[in-house]
Amino acid sequence: MKQSPLFTNKESKALDSLAIKELGFREETLMGMAALSVFHANEDLWKTAESIWILSGTGGNGGDGYALAHTLYQEGYKVRSFSTAPNKSEAGKFYETLVSKTLGAIGSIDDFYKEWEEAKEDSVLLVDAILGTGFQNELSEELTELIETINDSDVFFYRLSLDSPSGWNPYALGKSEEPNVFVYADSIEELGTRKWENVGFIYEKDAIIPRYYESIGFPIRTHLSNVTFSNRYYLEADPESAIQTLKRKNKDHKYSAGSAIFYGGETGMEGAILLSEQAFSRLGGGINKIFSPSTKISSLVLKEDLSKMAQTSSISEISNDPFFAKTKTLVVGPGLTKYPKDLEGWTLPEGKNLILDAGAIPSFGNKLPRGNQILLTPHVGELNRMTGKTHNSVQAAYDTLIEFCPQNNVYVLLKSFVSLLVCPDGFSYVWESPNPKLATMGTGDLLSGILARYLSLDLTIPESVQLALSLLDHSKQLEEPYPSAHQILKSLVELV
Predict the structure, then answer these.
(1) CA angle, 57 then 63 then 64, to 5°
(2) How far is Cα 345 from Cα 349, in angstroms, rounded to an integer?
(3) CA-to-CA distance for 35 and 64, rounded, in angstroms?
């Protein structure tokens, strides 16, 4: 799988300390490397600014800001450096002194406000180096006013944050009646490590703010341990593999091409389970059968295609069907309104996969089925119902699921503008690719069918999730602004 490690604030600090104490890096060297990385990564951006203002705080993040100010100035840009207070780290003091010698006096917050009042609209590119990723306390009144000024002012045409937007704290979201105050960064430069706490940073509707990773020599491959890494990864898009994996081979027969069982579709909701089955079969699945509590299911299925199999049944009767022994994957839930009691404590036979979606997502207190390959696919509301907790950020959801998944031996794929897969072995994967075209009825049913298709090819659950989400990402290219789930499926079939 294409993936990149994600580090918490604590883990990033541990790597920073390791690089300095064990590998012999000087902190000044790391700050200088960070400044050069940011400078070169944004050369086109600097050229758009009449003036660049860098606001530096008292910690390592502020030191990075001073190092960047020095580099920009030496490269001929018009730079103004401001400080919230003197820097506290030795490396930060080094660059603070360097800037005062090269740029001249470093402005105070009062100086910042005076120059801001005289500045022209859209004339300043602001670099936010006030607070680092480790700051989780309440903001002082002075910093709150400063950040609100930065956000509201027309003087700043672009706001770039180093490592993390100052004041951003995903764990505080929704916990107070007062809105969270943080810099509304237009982009973020993550230095040395990709930051877990930045995942899901958003202040505009349906828009994840761009984050860019700049390597500065941290030992993120050679010195990982339980202290410096907790097995969190970005899942990176793999659009070509998503398509090629689905193409049938010449030697395939109906079972090797993938087999599946679908259960769902209460009366009046049969379309949901039919859509899941269509996603599976039209994307190359070899053979499948639909079971449903609806008495209309057979007529609806056969009306669509005489070659298909369907049966009115309870979920407990499925395991007695001869087809059950031959199939690899079961999808339960699309078109159901409540968790089937027959699933409570049921044991999934070895070698089979079970996807629980929609109505088959249990409520808090329901007993889960047992097995080694069980995937639940809740959206946020269903996750809250399933765990009895409220989650306002992907980080909060992770904190719940990293205990829930091992305890229940299940995988959970949280579906949101940021998708999170947590595995029972402690590994987790983040998919951060908001797609407003999927915000339509039926796309969850579609995803279940696509997941079943990949799982039926003997891929692991993490591999199947990555490929399914990569395939669905192709829907972004549709010209239709609000495509239906059937239109999305048709476009994916054309790719395959």
Answers:
(1) 105
(2) 13
(3) 6
Q: Give the integer Cα–Cα distance in Å for 116 and 196.
A: 33
Q: Angle, nearest 10°, between helix axes 485-495 and 443-455?
A: 30
What is the average pLDDT across 190-204? 89
Quick one: angle between helices 27-41 and 60-74, nearest 10?
A: 60
User: What order of strands is seen across the sheet that includes strand 51-56?
Assistant: 79-83, 51-56, 124-129, 156-162, 187-191, 211-214
- Supply the DSSP symbol for 170: G
- Domains of the chain by start residue, with CATH: 3-230 (3.40.50.10260), 239-495 (3.40.1190.20)
CB 68 within 8 A of CB 40: no
For residue range 45-78, list pLDDT tens digits in order: 999 999 999 999 999 999 999 999 999 999 999 9
Which residue do the tokens 């209309």 mark?
Answer: 296
pTM of this prediction?
0.92
pLDDT of residue 2: 80
The residue behind tokens 């918490």 is 8
* β partners of residue 374: 354
pLDDT band at 176 (very low <50, low <70, confident <90, very high): low
Name residue 397's amino acid: A
Quote the radius of gyration of the chain (alpha carbons, Å).
Answer: 26
pLDDT band at 206 (very low <50, low <70, confident <90, very high): low
Q: Which of 45, 44, 104 lies closest to 70, judged by CA?
A: 104
| The predicted structure's pLDDT at residue 25 | 92
Tokens of 239: 């659009």
Under 8 Å CB-to-CB from 471, ≥6 apart: which residues? 239, 242, 243, 246, 450, 492, 495
Alpha-carbon gap, residue 138 to 250, rounded angstroms: 63
Q: Which of 294, 277, 281, 286 is nearest to 258 (CA)?
A: 286
Contact 17, 23 (CB under 8 A): no
Task: Kindly tell me the burial class for residue 433, based on how many C-beta atoms sit within 10 Å of its own C-beta (0-12, 13-18, 19 or more).
Answer: middle
Q: Which amino acid is at 305?
A: D
| pLDDT tens per residue across span 433-489 | 888 778 788 899 999 999 999 999 999 999 999 999 999 999 988 888 889 999 999
Q: Which two tokens stand for residue 10?
A: 């604590």
For residue 351, pLDDT beyond 80: yes
Cα distances (Å, whole numbers) of residue 328 to 48, 231, 301, 335: 56, 28, 21, 21
- Region 197-216: mean pLDDT is 84
Instruction: Give the three-class secondary structure for 159.
Output: strand
Which residues, including other chains, have CB under 8 Å from residue 98's CB and lie 6 or more apart?
66, 70
The percentage of the chain sitting over the pLDDT mark of 70, rounded to a whole number, equals 96
Neighbours of 242 (CB within 10 A): 23
- For 427, the token pair is 């590994």
Q: Can you tell me the distance from the alpha carbon of 78 to that of 56, in angstroms, rounded to the nearest whole number?
A: 17
Contacts of 174 (CB under 8 A, 6+ apart): 390, 392, 393
